[in-house]
Design a protein that fits this description.
Blueprint lengths: L1 H24 L1 H10 L5 H21 L3 H19 L8 H15 L7
Helix pairs in contact: 1-3, 2-3, 3-4, 4-5
């Protein structure tokens, strides 16, 4: 049973490894969107989030401070969901629907009834 948990933890963490690598290697593209969303210090924020994704994923994979790594991921995901998928601010119905869909995927909160 322990092997299954380790495999699951590693597979879950690999999502964030890929995201962290993307934040760092594609930082110019992500910085533009972060600036559009008025993220303070957009470039630094994109790079910092990439590093945090990688460190948190490594903690999950290695099982070292895994609780802290999971907490960092949870905080990052909630912050990013609120900042980047702000469907409640959208005036265009199609953009609002798109943002709501991505918000619910990012945060895993049941928002279908909103």
């Amino acid at each position: 049973m322990d092997a299954v948990l380790v495999i699951g933890r590693v597979l879950f963490a690999l999502i964030f490894v890929a995201s962290g690598i993307n934040h760092i290697t594609k930082s110019e593209h992500m910085t533009g969107y972060a600036q559009f969303k008025k993220v303070p210090a957009a470039k630094a924020s994109v790079l910092l989030s990439g590093v945090l994704f990688l460190l948190a994923a490594a903690s999950l994979i290695l099982g070292v401070y895994a609780d802290l790594g999971a907490l960092v991921l949870a905080v990052l995901l909630v912050m990013m969901a609120v900042m980047f998928h702000d469907f409640w601010k959208q005036t265009d119905h199609s953009k609002s629907k798109w943002s709501k869909s991505h918000f619910s995927k990012t945060s895993q909160w049941p928002v279908a009834h909103w």
